[in-house]
Amino acid sequence: MEIREFQQLMHDLYFENDKKRGRLGNFIWLVSEIGELARVLRDGNEEKIKEEVADVFAWLASLANVLNIDLEEVVKKKYPGKCPRCKNNPCKCNFRL
Ligand SMILES: [Mg+2]
Ligand SMILES: [Zn+2]
Q: Helix (H) and strand (E) counts for the chain?
């Protein structure tokens, strides 16, 4: 499944409610799921960590849907196979430090 297909799936499943919740409401849910990920990183097992990583990605897709942003398009634009700052792959400028 491509990123775009996953985002479309989230749209098909949840867009009605995501739209009603609005951008701030969806952002709050995303942050809440990041909090759950933090908790399982501290206390959880591998399976729980995988589930929470999936939730974070799903809520990011929901937020992008409400913002009418194509996730696949924007990540490919920002990260076109090389570091956005030094243009190397792998990065040589420590952009993510
Ligand atoms: Mg969760
Ligand atoms: Zn770099």
A: 3, 0
